[in-house]
Every structure is written in structure tokens, then in C-alpha cells.
Amino acid sequence: MKLLVLNGPNLNMLGIREPDIYGKETYPQLVKLVEDTCAELGVEVEVYQSNHEGDLVDKIQAAYGAKDAIVINPAAYTHTSVAILDALKAVALPAVEVHLSDVKSRDDFRQVSYVRLACEKTIMGLGFQGYVEAIRYLADKYQK
């Protein structure tokens, strides 16, 4: 199985940005956890982070025919990006939306997720473990 793990804006600032919400672990630690989890499951993984919406759309489009599934934490673009939603719908790959925090308990504007409309599952509030759960879910369901 070939997996794309896609991370949106400000996730590169993990450990610095609002550690009371997002934790003290860093982005490199997240990448290592994702890579280690995938290695354990025999999943080939590409991890990518960008602060730019178009870059994320380009990565999703490039996954068409090259990847089997996507784990996406669109971060702030969750609540604003029809472009990312449309890209996910266009490639029609199995996708899981992940959020480090429990978005349901946060600001009103964070209750809207455009991306969720193209994802078969949403995992939130588990911190880094949400990525592990998403990877395991996709591997169990789609690994050949």
C-alpha cells in the first residue's frame, strides 16, 4: 500500500504553537511516528507539509494513480478550503481526516469541515495517536 500523509499550515510549528492545545511534541517527531508506524505495517509512505493551499492541492492531484490512500490534517484549511475538498473528490482515493485537538470542543468556526465531505472517517482529539489510528484503519481496510 502507498500512502500520502498530508499536513496543512502551521503543523511545522508543533511544539512551539499553543502547546496546551497541540502538545509539546515536534513535527519531526510526528513524521518519525508516521514513518515507524508505516514501516511496521509494510506501508510505503510519503509525508508532506505545506502552509500553502495550492501546494496541498497539487500533492493531492499528484496522488492520483500513484497512491492508494490519503491521511490528511488540513489544519486551518479544514474550515475554508473548497479547493482541497474538490481535489480529494477528484482523485477519489480513500481518505481519513485527522486533527490533533478535539475540534468539536473549540471555536464555533472550527465546527465546519469541508474536507470531511470527501473523507470516510474523521479522527480528532487523540494527538499524534490519531495518525496511527488513521494509518491502521486504512491499512486494515485497503492493504492488498
Automatic annotation (TrEMBL):
Active site: Y22 (proton acceptor), H99 (proton donor)
Gene Ontology molecular function terms on file: 3-dehydroquinate dehydratase activity
Catalysed reaction, written as an equation: 3-dehydroquinate = 3-dehydroshikimate + H2O
EC number annotated for this UniProt entry: 4.2.1.10
Alphabetized UniProt keyword annotations: Amino-acid biosynthesis, Aromatic amino acid biosynthesis, Lyase
Broad enzyme group: lyase
Positions bound to substrate: N73, H79, D86, L100, S101, R110
Site (Transition state stabilizer): R17
One Pfam entry name: DHquinase_II
GO biological process annotation, one example: quinate catabolic process
InterPro entries for this protein: DHquinase_II, DHquinase_II_CS, DHquinase_II_sf
Associated pathway: Metabolic intermediate biosynthesis; chorismate biosynthesis; chorismate from D-erythrose 4-phosphate and phosphoenolpyruvate: step 3/7
SUPFAM superfamilies: Type II 3-dehydroquinate dehydratase (SSF52304)
The keyword Amino-acid biosynthesis is annotated on this UniProt entry: yes
Family, similarity comment: Belongs to the type-II 3-dehydroquinase family.
PANTHER family linked: CATABOLIC 3-DEHYDROQUINASE
Assembly and binders: Homododecamer.
Role this protein plays: Catalyzes a trans-dehydration via an enolate intermediate.
Name assigned to this protein: 3-dehydroquinate dehydratase
Gene: aroQ
